[in-house]
From TrEMBL:
GO molecular function, one term: phospholipid binding
Main location group: cytoplasm
Organism field: Esox lucius (Northern pike)
Ranges for region Disordered: 242-268
Domain (BAR) ranges: 28-244
InterPro entries for the chain: AH/BAR_dom_sf, Amphiphysin, BAR_dom, SH3-like_dom_sf, SH3_domain
Domain SH3: 349-420
Residue stretches of biased makeup (Pro residues): 246-265
Name of the protein in question: Bridging integrator 1b
């Protein structure tokens, strides 16, 4: 059984080799002009169109794959960019949730666009090109069968023209010619019908491919445009939020190491001199002198005498001192008591107010802790020589209104505040 199978394969191989030699010999004779060649101009034109169609389709497939790779690259780049924005976006900024949602929807949109291109355009492209290898193989087979047919035809003709015709050989050659012609005509007829149809199908394929791609692109860019507009709106609101907030202040000015200044807390004996009139605290001589450090003692004495005379005349028949609480116009009322004239004098000093625009954490014991929005009453320094550039002395308005004293006054950076 093994020997029989080996013999069959050997015989088939010998037959194939004989066919190849006969075809090669026929081709040589045709090229030398010693044997005519069957021509079919219409079929040759169809073959030329087929080759052109196959080359164009292969190029389209290659370019479509490159486009899909570019879409995937753009998707990855877009995702990294959106993730970067989402990571940088601080929670207290306007539209944090919107930015996260836009990033997620953008990623989904890219994925959907890429998947549709792969599932439709690319699959259709692969199916379209899959038919070309089989048709190409049958065209090559037809060429071989045509050569076999021409060879059988020439062999039959040569036997007929021989000097001593051998009818048996002629009959056998005629039989081989019939078989060769039948095989050739079968495949030739199939291709003559199929090639023109395949050539015409390219138009419909191109239309469907690019129409679907155009539709996907239109929907993708339309949806992406909406997301981009939403992101632009969020960025616009964020910029408005930024402009509405005051810019962060510069660092507080550097305070040089000052010479020791008097304590801001009044001495115990001074605190005991604070008097109450109608439940309102008044400030003693020591506080008055601290506030009016820029005045010489002589000038202060003159003013006290003058004001004592004015008060004694104006309030001669009054049993209590009129009240002048702190107004929004930044008037600080300080009552000074003088034993020389025996009258209580209301001393009014004009100071300006400032509003804290930013938080300030005190770094020294004599500094004033500030929160954005605090109103501070600015006071004169105890010793003008100790005043540092860019720093003010003051007490919070809230403390004054509640306690009516200056026990918690302190220094603070001027560039953290705005004058009212």
């Amino acid at each position: 059984m093994g020997k029989a199978g080996k013999g069959i394969n050997t015989g088939k191989l010998a037959t194939n080799m004989q066919k190849r030699l006969s075809r090669a010999q026929e081709k040589v004779l045709q090229k030398l002009g010693k044997a005519d060649e069957t021509k079919d101009t219409v079929f040759e034109e169809s073959v030329a169109n087929f080759n052109k169609q196959m080359v164009e389709g292969t190029k389209l497939q290659r370019d479509l794959r490159a486009y899909l790779a570019a879409v995937k690259t753009m998707h990855d780049a877009s995702k990294r960019l959106q993730d970067c924005l989402a990571d940088m976006y601080e929670p207290d900024w306007f539209g944090k949730e919107e930015v996260d949602a836009i990033a997620e929807e953008t990623d989904i949109l890219w994925s959907d666009y890429h998947d549709k291109l792969v599932d439709n355009s690319m699959v259709s492209m692969d199916t379209y090109l899959a038919q070309f290898p089989d048709v190409k193989a049958r065209i090559a087979k037809r060429d071989r069968k045509l050569t076999d047919f021409d060879s059988a035809r020439h062999h039959f003709a040569s036997l007929q023209k021989g000097k001593k015709p051998d009818q048996a050989k002629i009959a056998k050659a005629e039989e081989e010619l019939g078989r060769a012609q039948k095989v050739f005509e079968e495949i030739n007829i199939e291709l003559q019908d199929e090639l023109p149809q395949l050539w015409n199908s390219r138009v419909g394929f191109y239309v469907n491919t690019f129409q679907s791609m155009a539709g996907y692109q239109e929907r993708f860019h339309k949806d992406m445009g909406k997301l981009n507009q939403d992101l632009n709106d969020v960025m616009t609101k964020l910029e408005e939020q930024r402009l509405a907030k005051p810019a962060p202040p510069a660092a507080p000015p550097v305070r040089p190491s000052p010479s020791p200044r008097p304590s801001l807390t009044p001495a115990p004996e001074t605190q005991q001199d604070i008097l109450l009139f109608d439940s309102e605290a008044v400030v003693t001589h020591s506080e008055t002198f601290a506030l009016l450090g820029w005045l010489c003692l002589r000038c202060l004495a003159k003013k006290l005498k003058m004001l004592s005379h004015l008060v004694s005349v104006s309030y001669k028949n009054q049993t209590s001192i009129p009240e002048y609480p702190i107004s929004s116009g930044a008037w600080l009322v300080v009552v000074s008591w003088t034993q020389e004239v025996g009258h209580y004098i209301r001393w009014c000093l004009l100071f300006f107010q400032v509003k804290a625009m930013h938080d300030y954490a005190a770094t020294d014991g004599d500094e004033l802790e500030l929160k954005a929005g605090d109103v501070v009453l600015v006071l004169a320094w105890d010793n003008p020589d100790e005043q540092d550039d860019g720093w003010l002395m003051g007490v919070k308005e809230s403390h004054w209104l509640e306690n009516k004293n200056l026990l918690v006054k302190g220094v603070f950076p001027e560039n953290f505040t705005q004058k009212l």
